[in-house]
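User: Hi! I'm working on a homework problem where we have to compare a predicted structure to a textbook description. Could you give me the structure for the chain below?
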Amino acid sequence: MDFTALVLPQSWYVFGWLGLAFLGWRWLMSGDWRRLVEPRQMNLFLGATVAVLALWQIRTGVQPGLTFHLYGLSVLTLMFGFWRASFAGVLILLINVVFGRGSLMALGLDALLQAALPAAVSWSVFRLLERHLPNHFFIYVLGNGFFGAALAVSAIGLANTAVMALAEVYSLEYLLRHYTPYAALLLSWSEAFLTGMVVTMMAVYRPAWLETFDDAKYIQNK
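Assistant: Happy to help. Predicted structure tokens:
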């Protein structure tokens, strides 16, 4: 899913840039960017961003503006939290623009729906599970790695369906028949499987890479 084909009315892209500007302002005010000053955090952040960038290059589509690819934003959110994960998504989109795989005009709207939205869903699932369920390793992996990732990608597919239908680019009937079931259901299971494996491996072998994971909380004395 992306809008690099510029199939929407121009007003939608203006709205996207306004939303991205607000998101950038909130990120600066959050102070989360200070974590990137640490060399170890910067190296980990850049390495994870490049890995997800490579994942985004494997894509296919059915129509202009209706493409499919895995996202990896749930992994980034569990590693860095909402703000740095969404910032990484914006960087990935910007790099795609530089290398001719995206449109600068569509960057704002793409950033909201492909970076901020899945990061917000994944972060909300993490906070919800942490607050209401026991702190257990399998709850962390299954709840955040599988369920959270699936829900995040489903949100992208449903949001894109709504945007395309409201802008009358494609009919809702066409989207529900040829796009939404694959973008919101089938792709979400692939994302959940990939994210679950990656999060499990990091929790076991590199727990320090997951800022949302704590050995003492999720493993010890269980």
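For your comparison, note the following. The chain has one domain: 10-218. The mean pLDDT is 91. Good luck with the assignment!
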